[in-house]
């Protein structure tokens, strides 16, 4: 690996850290909707794989670190993964410990990173001998994964029932495109369908606004006022091991280890379960809330890193919720990456290690310091100057552009249809993990169904 490539990796990691330190502080900045489209554009632009991986690792680390700010200051989750922490962060805020909440959450993320990196690399190496066998049954595994994720979700029955109809819609659109000549027969239109699912709730909401009765019945709100309490600022670089107590550090490390090993399961479910489990034995409110937020953030960060690295290094197919979500373009971004030719096949083990280390270290250093030192300034700037709707509009337009590039104007309509159905399913309780598993297993499901 030459110096120029290392320099590109460093620059990419710095840009990602700065960019997602701002984006990640915005309320509702879901990681899949904000990271996946950008990574997809970088892949399609022809950027070197190690540079893209450095950018991605820096992005996810920064996103998870900075979500301490809106959660602690305003009680507003930055994304789905930070939602479980809101209740506990508000307990700390009630006691005037907003700065403590930010420090505990950010420090938990650092612990999660430190534990999950070596564990992920070790597990990836251990799984390599079994990779061929696992990939032979990839389609079946995706289907089983959809069923298991459906069974583990709160709305398990609607999730189970939706598997075949949603697969039929996806595969039916592909056959329609082949039949009318929109794309050559056998071409797998994937990326635009994936992004349609990602922003499905947004597409559904936009269509609802076209309904006058629905629009008239929507609640109207005045300007939202959020009070930011003045907190002490530290000029020194914060030490996570001094911010966390021994008990918090120990439980955060244990949660990170569990999150790394169980990378196939739902990150949100794991975060809620183990965060509440580890803090349940503590009765004092402040101590309990501090322990809960640090453990939850450590586990969430660990699932992000392990859920990306283990499938990417060992298998080359996205077999985790994280790999199916924000990290999906690293596995499958036709025509540049396919399941038979992606980063797994193009990069060596040392490439993965260097790209990951550079991305993670730079993002951890920049965003951790900024989170603890300038949390209020960032939160105030984002809340005042960056409308959430503007970011959603940007990503929505990017999805439509990529849909057109995939299969022309007919696919723009197809992606809107996918988005509407995905948005309805999401509101009914069918989570992203189930929908993405269906997207991957759709050809296998319909082939087997037709053979009955």
TrEMBL record:
InterPro entries found in the cross-reference section: DUF112_TM (IPR002823)
Keywords tagged on the record: Membrane, Transmembrane, Transmembrane helix
Membrane-spanning ranges: 6-26, 38-62, 68-86, 106-128, 134-151, 158-177, 189-210, 251-274, 352-372, 393-426
Pfam families found in the cross-reference section: TctA
Annotated ranges, domain DUF112: 11-431
Protein name, as recorded: Tripartite tricarboxylate transporter permease
Native species: Clostridium yunnanense
């Amino acid at each position: 690996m030459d110096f120029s490539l290392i320099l590109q990796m460093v620059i990419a990691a710095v840009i990602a850290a700065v960019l997602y330190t701002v984006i990640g502080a915005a309320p509702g900045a879901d990681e899949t909707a904000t990271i996946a489209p950008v990574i997809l554009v970088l892949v399609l632009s022809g950027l070197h794989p190690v540079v893209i991986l450095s950018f991605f690792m820096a992005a996810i680390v920064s996103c998870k670190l900075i979500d301490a700010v809106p959660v602690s200051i305003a009680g507003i989750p930055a994304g789905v993964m930070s939602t479980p922490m809101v209740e506990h962060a508000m307990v700390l805020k009630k006691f005037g410990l907003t700065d403590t909440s930010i420090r505990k959450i950010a420090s938990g993320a650092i612990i999660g990173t430190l534990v999950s990196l070596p564990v992920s690399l070790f597990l990836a190496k251990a799984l390599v001998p079994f990779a061929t066998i696992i990939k032979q049954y990839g389609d079946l595994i995706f289907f089983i994964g959809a069923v298991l994720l459906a069974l583990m979700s709160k709305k398990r029955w609607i999730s189970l029932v939706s598997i075949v109809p949603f697969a039929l819609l996806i595969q039916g659109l592909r056959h329609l495109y082949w039949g009318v000549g929109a794309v050559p027969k056998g071409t797998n239109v994937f990326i635009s369908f994936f992004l349609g699912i990602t922003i499905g709730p947004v597409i559904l909401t936009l269509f609802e606004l076209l309904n006058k009765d629905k629009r008239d019945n929507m609640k109207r709100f005045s300007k939202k006022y959020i009070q930011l309490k003045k907190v002490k600022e530290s000029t020194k670089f914060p030490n996570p091991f001094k911010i966390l107590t021994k008990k918090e550090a120990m439980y955060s490390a244990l949660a990170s280890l569990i999150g790394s090993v169980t990378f196939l399961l739902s990150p949100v479910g794991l975060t809620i379960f183990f965060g509440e489990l580890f803090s349940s034995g503590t009765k004092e409110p402040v101590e309990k809330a501090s322990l809960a937020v640090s453990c939850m953030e450590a586990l969430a960060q660990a699932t992000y890193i392990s859920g990306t690295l283990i499938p990417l290094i060992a298998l080359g197919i996205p077999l985790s919720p994280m790999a199916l979500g924000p990290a999906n373009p690293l596995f499958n971004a036709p025509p540049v990456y396919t399941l038979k030719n992606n980063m797994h096949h193009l990069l060596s083990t040392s490439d993965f290690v260097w790209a990951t280390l550079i991305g993670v270290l730079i993002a951890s250093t920049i965003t951790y310091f900024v989170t603890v030192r300038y949390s209020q300034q960032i939160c105030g700037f984002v809340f005042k100057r960056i409308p959430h709707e503007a970011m959603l509009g940007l990503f929505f337009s990017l999805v439509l552009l990529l849909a057109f590039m995939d299969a022309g104007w007919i696919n723009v309509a197809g992606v809107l249809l996918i988005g509407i159905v995905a948005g309805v399913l999401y509101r009914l309780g069918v989570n992203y993990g189930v929908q993405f598993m269906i997207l991957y297993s759709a050809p296998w499901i319909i082939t087997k169904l037709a053979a009955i």
